Amino acid sequence: MSSSEEAIAHLSAVVRSYDVRGRVGQELTAPIVRALGAAFADEVTAQQVGAPHVEIVVGHDMRQSSAEFADAFADGAEQRGASVVMIGLCSTDETYFMSGRDSVPAVMVTASHNPAEYNGLKFSRAGATSMSWDTGLSAVRERAAGYLSDGIEPAAVPGGRRQADVLPAYAAHLRSLVDLAPVRPLRVVIDAGNGMAGLTVPAVLGAAAGLDVVPIEVIPLYFELDGSFPNHAPNPMLPQSVLDLQQAVIAHEADLGLAFDGDADRCFVIDEAGAAVDPSALAAIVARRLIARDRTADPDAEVVVLLNLVTSRRLSETIEASGAVPVVTRVGHSLIKEDMRETGAVFGAEHSGHYYFRDFFGADNGLLTALHVLAELGGQPLPLSALAAAVAPYAMSGEINLEVDDVPGAYASLVEAYSGAADFDEFDGLTVTGLTSTTEPFWWFNVRPSNTEPVLRLNVEAGTPAEMVRVRDAVLALLEP
User: Using CA atoms, how far apart are residues 284 and 287, in angstroms rounded to an integer?
Assistant: First the structure.
């Protein structure tokens, strides 16, 4: 195998549909990250014709390899003539803030919710615009492969590097979007999971950034930044990762609990009884707030809300009942950000805990989601469980991961089994919707290959728990060996 072919193989192992992800020291190394930095600088410079230097923001999380990788990425970008703004430890949405506010490209060094042995990169074009495989990431991989095999050719005019502190401006911006001053006093337990929320929450909800005090009492869990994640996995979608939070909410008689993933761009919520609030219900609560705001400002305007196809049918119904138009989008943060811009949607939601805001450059923001939940809860007397129950999903299976070697064969077996009894759609994976009568409970399921793991993901929803179990078990019998 030639050096060029080896480079392509290395890059192919880590460059995914909408980001870079790999095991540190095996799939992802400093030379690979340096080559990606040079390639990213080339890609974004090509979009900024006439500018002597492109400025690139580089931030990183608290993983043990992140500072080294941020430095390597900046070095590669500088060699290709970019001026790099190093913002140091930050949440992913802080890089979106810098990219959107200053209209500059940005990169975040993080592996998000993945285990400690992983790291990766999330890219943004100027204005917090996403970069996916089809919108530049494939070109970045090709250029990076050349630099990895042949070395980085220095630009005629070298780049530079400077430091910047974005947290105070970021915190002030979020607080300007949601007014917490009028809310009733709330007690909230927040589990940062040793991730970046341990840095951002004290700035946004506390006095760390010099903002006005709000009537929110924060009880912190695992705010110490530690990329080895000594307390639990940085993925609040895993039930075991929120056990401590659930117990703490009950022990402290808190009004709610909030959990964030490693880079703090996803938010998960626990009600006052210690029960998890379904992401679709959480999305409905936030969507209704934003729809009402836009409706008040312009009663005749069309308001659009995005939702991916594995969120609950209840969310779509809530959006319509609130006077807005639900638009289904594909799964994946880069893909939904593209759709946010194209549709002008006020809000977008994914079942995975990513929530997107027109107010925040069309990007996702976990802490902004939390502020809306706090404002909604604190603006009325009911407990969170009552708010969530009003928009609770129908019976859902949750996401089930299956190891399936032959995805086309799996799709074919499902089509054969349900032909004549269901409609089929291949918009994102395969969605099968039952042809039920008005007296039968509805049902649907979706299977799709993961963009980040070698698995097939199954989601089922039905009008009753019994029907959901029946459909789920039937599909699993077809897919499991």
Answer: 5
CA distance 30 to 52: 27
- In 309-384, beta strands by DSSP E: 325-329, 347-349, 355-357
Active site residue 112: yes
| Helix ranges restricted to H, 58-103 | 66-79, 92-102
pLDDT tens-digit map of 303-327: 999 999 899 999 999 999 999 999 9
Calculate the CA dihedral of residues 357, 358, 364, 365 and round it to 10 degrees: -60
Domain hosting 44: range is 3-165
Q: Which of the listed residues 277, 293, 313 is the one where a domain comes to its end?
A: 277
**Which residues partner with 267 through β-bridges?**
260
Looking at the structure, do residues 159 and 221 belong to the same domain, yes or no?
no
pTM of the shown model: 0.93
Task: Sort strands 304-308 and 267-270 into parallel, antiparallel or unpaired.
Answer: unpaired
Catalytic residue among 91, 112, 241, 397: 112
CA dist 420 → 79, 423, 434, 446 (Å): 60, 8, 9, 17
**Token pair for residue 475?**
């599909």
